[in-house]
Design brief:
mainly alpha
């Protein structure tokens, strides 16, 4: 490790080179992405299919809210296999909102920039990539520094 890498590690208090932590935070982020995508894509598609005249910002805001809700529901279901339902829901609602909101905002920003807020097949991979990459460093940081995963 170079002196610059050592100084960077010491100043942040964590090592950014741990493959195990990157792998685990990637898995956690993918679970979050799955949950958020269900509500997000579903909301956008609902307004699109039904041709409901609603402002784009309103649709994107609802998509973010529904993405957060579906992510919490999915996480509660996953955790309920390891703990009782009340504890699972409490853990799921205690997830990092910073991570989930940044994921949702990144996904919807990509959709608006590249497709004008319309959900089309070619933009979905771009949305998913942005939604995955955006919160990943934060999820790594939380996992490494506090041993707290967003999922």
């Amino acid at each position: 490790m170079s002196n610059q890498e050592i100084n960077k590690q010491e100043s942040s208090g964590i090592s950014w080179t741990c493959r195990h932590t990157w792998r685990q935070s990637s898995i956690n982020t993918l679970w979050c992405l799955l949950g958020c995508s269900i509500g997000d894509f579903g909301t956008i598609l609902f307004f699109q299919i039904n041709e409901i005249p609603f402002p784009l910002l309103g649709i994107m805001t609802l998509a973010i809210i529904n993405g957060l809700i579906t992510s919490i529901i999915l996480e509660t279901i996953i955790l309920s296999r390891q703990m009782n339902l009340k504890e699972a829901f409490s853990t799921a609602t205690g997830m990092s909102l910073i991570s989930m909101i940044s994921m949702e905002v990144a996904m919807n920003t990509v959709d608006v920039i590249f497709a004008g807020g319309v959900l089309v097949m070619w933009v979905i991979p771009l949305m998913l990539i942005a939604g995955f990459i955006t919160p990943l460093p934060y999820n790594y940081y939380r996992l490494k520094k506090y041993n707290i995963a967003c999922h």
